[in-house]
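Thread: "does anyone have the structure for this chain?"

Original post by V.I.:
We have the sequence but no experimental structure in hand. Need at least a predicted one for the grant figures.
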Amino acid sequence: MVSGEFYSGYIGDFIIGFNINIENSKHPDKVEHVIKFFNGFSKIMFRLTKMVLKLTPYGVFGLIANVSAKYGLDTLLPLGSFIVTVYIACLVHLLFTYGGLVFLIGKINPFIFFKRVYPAMVVAFTSRSSYGTLPVTLEVIIQRLKVPEKIAHFVAPLGATINMDGCGGLYPAIVAVFVSSIYGIDLSITQYILIIAISTIATIGTAGVPGTASVMTTVVLSSVGLPVEGLALVIGVDAIVDMARTTVNVTGDTVVSLLVAKSEKELDEETFYNAKDLDLIKDI
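Reply from O.Q.:
Generated one for you, tokens below.
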């Protein structure tokens, strides 16, 4: 239901934007004020996200303190291995899958790439929402990666909807293995293949808001005959692992934007490597 509502919203936004562009090409004077409104509103949102970036360290501290106070160490410590596993999986995916794509296909230094996209990664980590991070993601792709706006404005919103590697791919698979271990259920090769297949499909159907990964996890658990109630074992630390999952999702959007620009020969690599003014949080 939630995913359907978000898809409907994006379809509506697409239709409105599409018709504004058509009208602008035919009668630009009639939609001039509408376009100015949206451009001005986007500037306000970028200013807001820059303020969020400055407050991020305090937000991280508050979030971790809140989770610790709410669930206590007695709840967190037994699930420590699960949390560590999720973070390691996300880190491996970031460094080797995304880093490898940037290096091998994009022919870009991955260290420079991750340095450029860290503002989006930080906001994704603290907000736990791909949609909420979208303004920063766009700013990073355009200003720091030097990807053309037409590519950024197509890839980033689409990625915030269907690119959920962390929430729909990695997390449900790890939970499935964790639950099978807790309940003493041996998984067959067929079940492992099914987990991989369904988790891959789930990356397209997971909404980019906090907590929806749990919904897709129930689908994976039930599809391989694992007890759905096993999800309750990890719900208590969902906020902690969701930060890592969302970071993976958002980083993937920036990677794809870069690779699309590279494939279309629209990435100005000289500007990319020589850009000096990269501070998104200055002059606030």
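V.I.: this helps a lot. The radius of gyration is 20 Å.
O.Q.: and The chain has twelve helices and no strands.
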